[in-house]
Amino acid sequence: MTAIVDRLGPDRVKLGVCCTLWWNDDFPTIDAGISFGQAVSEMALAGFQGCSLGHKYPSDAATLKAALDLRELSVSEPWTSTYFTIGKMRQKTIAAFEQTLAHIKALGGTELVVAEFGASSHLLPVDVFANRPVLTDAQWDDLTSGLQELAKIAVSAGMKLSYHHHMGTGVMSGADVDRLLASTDPDLVHLLLDTGHAAFAGDDPLEMARAHADRIGHVHLKSVRPEIVRRVRAEGLSFQEAVELGVFTVPGDGAIDFRPILEVLADAGYRGWLVVEAEQDPNQAVPLEYAKKARAYLADVLGW
Prior knowledge:
Elements: H1 4-7, E1 13-17, H2 36-45, E2 50-52, H3 61-70, E3 74-77, E4 80-82, H4 90-106, E5 111-116, H5 137-156, E6 160-164, H6 174-182, E7 189-194, H7 195-201, H8 205-211, E8 216-221, E9 223-224, H9 226-235, H10 239-245, E10 248-249, H11 258-267, E11 272-276, H12 287-302
Parallel strand pairs: 1-2, 1-11, 2-3, 4-5, 5-6, 6-7, 7-8, 8-11
Antiparallel strand pairs: 9-10
């Protein structure tokens, strides 16, 4: 077999990191006071080529691009929430997506990431498993038709749309992912494989990668701590409580073996971003330390 470095080398993939190591965009109280400038400098110092966007970033595209260019970073993705499954939100969702698209294009990015948050339990102080929405057939139709529309807008702008399955949402489990992909055009709607969310939901991220290798357009690499997952289930904890307890961590830590997952991506001819993510409390997990740990692990696995 050809070495993985020859199939997932720097000519084929880029390594990014999410700002959720430095602060949390969903829960602003999870914060250690780290500034935007310090965060992106540490991303570059740890050896990454790009990053996701976050709420501490400058809103002006020219200002942000100059700060990222200075550190030789590019934008791996934005985040746009969709609300197709709840009432009277379709046009607002499309308008917000188009605004995000224009911003990312101005930054030189080509990737768009979306997740359906209609009736999501992940922001609420409730059991994240028991209170996740279960979509009706009509809601599934609204979601998939809406995603098709967004994807066409993205393609017309020379960009790619990937869907992020997420804890506490209507597309959380492997079965949900199967249905969403079966109901959308493979040339338009791609999958963002998030290894941490798959494992937290109770699915095998390796099996998800194998099942949908030809649909994966973007990848979030994060690991989980199984003892925290078990506690969340047993005690009916919220998503925020799970994050604060340390349910997620970076590759090279936690329970997930990323080598076979990356081999699947290599065999499928994956091209694009591999983005390290760990929604952790920066007061408990020093961001630069964990970013460097993840980068060292990927250097060992990928060979670069």
